[in-house]
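Loading example: each entry is read as two labelled lines plus one structure line.
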Amino acid sequence: MAGSTIDHLIAMTVFLGAILIFVGLFNQTIQTAILYQRNKYIATKCSDLLDNILLNPGIPTNWGRSNVIPTSFGLQDPEFTQYRLSPFSLLRLVSASGTPVTYPKLGLVCSNTTIGFGNFLLVPYTKAINYSLATRLLGVNGSYGFQLTITPIVTVSITKVGSNPVTLSVNVKGAGFPLSNAVVSYCLIIVKPTGGEGQYPSFTTNYGTAYTNAEGSAILSFSTINEAQDSYVLIVYVHHGGLIGTGYYEHILNKENYIVPFIYDFGNEGGQVLLAHSWDVHGGDHPAAITYNATFVILTEDFTLREMPLGAGRVGLLNYGNDPHTYEIITIPTYNPGILVVTYRKSANPKDSGVVLMPWGISSLAFPVVFGEDPSSKTWVATDIRQVLVGNVAYQAKLALWSLEGYQVIG
Amino acid sequence: MAHITIEYVIMLPILIMQIILFPLTASWLMNIWVDSRRNLALQEVASHLGSIIQQVYFTLNHETITVGSITQKPDVPPLIENYPYIGNATLKTVLDPTMNSSKVLTITLKLKGTRTTATTTVLLGPNVVWRESTFISNSSNACIIAQKFANKTILLAFGG
């Protein structure tokens, strides 16, 4: 009798165990299936969201060209259709890549997309669109996180291959292949060490075109440059079969005292740029007053570069610290993408010169944009890409999207 | 005698109960799975439908288009696990003054014959008008209709 009871007890225990194992395994299989479906849904959502961002100019449509906070988020250029993005809407996005820069004199805290020395893009947070606002306007706050990256497709790298005369090699690459027989339009700005104390820097401009060879390279030689005395910058636009890329090369003698340009305001007719002394922004040794001379260069429809005159404040002297006149505000009277070129020199010594660039519109110096949260630590991230044009320059837009609602299926 | 009592009065009902418990558990788990699956599928369709409506709106809202109409057949499945679904939408003005009278279209889909529903919201401009209409997924004419008038008003509706 006792044996029969033990049989029953064992049978019942085994049966109970079997049920528990079954529930556990079945539950796990179901969770995996649901997770797969959820991931598929996130992938569809990613594609939809990317299209909604890229194929919609936002509301109001011209928010990129004003100080207005949009009520609907979109990056399409309102003057065009399809995947053409506004270089100025992109300019107003808070960069996720750079460390914020502060200008204490005016209490400006700026989003920073600066690439190396002399290529500044600083937009005050008060004028920029942050990630939190974008998620709310897109209707994904609390449910999805995202990161939008916009990177140029055509890579233009410039290297110096000779010093006497100065010879520069322009190397152009598409998506993994060299761009041969492409037209290279360039603008060379040389800061000359002329003028006495307190004079504004003088510069010469030199325009030209060249073609890339089968390896995607073009050699440019400039006999008018004396590297020991001249600072210079070469700006290059490359176009081939509708693909446009841009690059630049700088030779700067004075990196101790320089100009830092901040975007200050997006007006109706153009923008305002604040030019500040570097010592008031980054500090440093041996501060000295500097004089500057600003010019604006735009890419014309025939793919050549052209200077556009600037108004009041185009030239000036900037002090530092508590001295008077430590900054100047200049106006860029257009919303055509271009490059603000500011040549400068130490007020007391014309040979201590330099030049800094600031893109007016993200595309004019092919700056990349990284907007949103970092997806690297997220559990499951869907990505989608589109080829887009930003002010005629070819870019790739990539959206990474992930769910914020966790991965629990039951309970 | 005591052993027989334990065996037949306690153990046997428990074993029988477990036999019932096994399929009940399986059924319960299956129901959770089916509900989750349908819910996700319907949510995906709702989200995609909302995205299409938003894109149709912004296409017509472009300044180069003065008047015109679009009929967009959305690429959504007519059935979800053999069930058709119906959709309705309501348009409300956002009361937040910073949103400048933008309008929110709330789309609700319901899977026929089940209790599964899904909702998505789409932000549109102040010049949008929604016409009361129903989206019937298995209708051969299921579509999104958009019409822009000379006063820049854009009328949206489901067709079919």
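Residues 10-159 of chain B form one domain.
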